[in-house]
Amino acid sequence: MNKNKEIVKSYYENLWNKKDKSYIEKLFDDKILFRGSLNMETNGKKEFEEYFDMILNAIPNLYHGVELLIAENNLISARAIYNGTHMGKLFDFEATNNRIRYYGASFFRIENDKIKEIWVLGDLNSLYKQLSK
Questions:
Q1: 24: exposed, middle or buried (Cβ count in 10 Å: 0-12, 13-18, 19+)
Q2: How far, in Å, CA of 59 to CA of 3, rounded?
Q3: What tens digit of pLDDT does each residue of 7-50 get?
Q4: In angstroms, rounded to a whole number, what is the distance separating the alpha carbons of residues 133 and 1?
Q5: From CA 92, how far away is CA 27, in angstroms rounded?
Q6: What is the pLDDT of residue 57?
Q7: Contact at 8 Å (CB) between 24 and 107?
Q8: SS3 for 20?
């Protein structure tokens, strides 16, 4: 597998699915730029870690199932399905204990074997419907 794909695969498997925050330091450029479909933008590792904690407080068992990775030069795109249980406040939605499941696509830029930029586009319409039940 392409080295950049391995970096992105580690982002999902080790950081998100195993919830190992040490991978923020291992995988990210110091000036990581993250733009998420949850109306979030972070600059740098510290801000990303705050975002990471906020998401896991709301959905502690969040799992990213990667269905597809495509690489071209230093760009990687991923299609994923997100699963978990809404157990804490997310947006204006208090915990519902609803199981959630929605799709998304992410776009990564890798520089010097580090993730420099991530853009995430998720199916928020589907997510909102599941949070408001």
A1: middle
A2: 30
A3: 999 999 999 999 999 999 999 999 999 999 877 899 999 999 99
A4: 41
A5: 31
A6: 97
A7: no
A8: coil
What single-letter amino acid sits at 71? A
User: What span, in angstroms and rounded, lies between the C-alpha atoms of 124 and 7?
Assistant: 26
Tokens read off for 101: 């499941």
Residues whose CB is less than 8 angstroms from the CB of residue 46 and which lie 6 or more positions away in sequence, other chains included: none
Residues forming a β-bridge with 114: 111
For 70-92, how does the pLDDT look when each residue is reduced to its tens digit (9 = 90+)?
999 999 999 999 999 999 998 88
Residue 1's pLDDT is 58
In which residue are the tokens 């040490």 written?
22
DSSP string, 46-89: HHHHHHHHHHHHHSTT-EEEEEEEEEETTEEEEEEEEEEE--S-
Reported as a single tens digit per residue, the pLDDT across 96-116 is: 999 999 999 999 999 999 999
Buried b (16+ CB within 10 A) or exposed e, 96-106: eeeebebebeb
- Pull the structure tokens for residue 127: 């997510």
- For strands 99-111 and 114-122, give the pairing: antiparallel
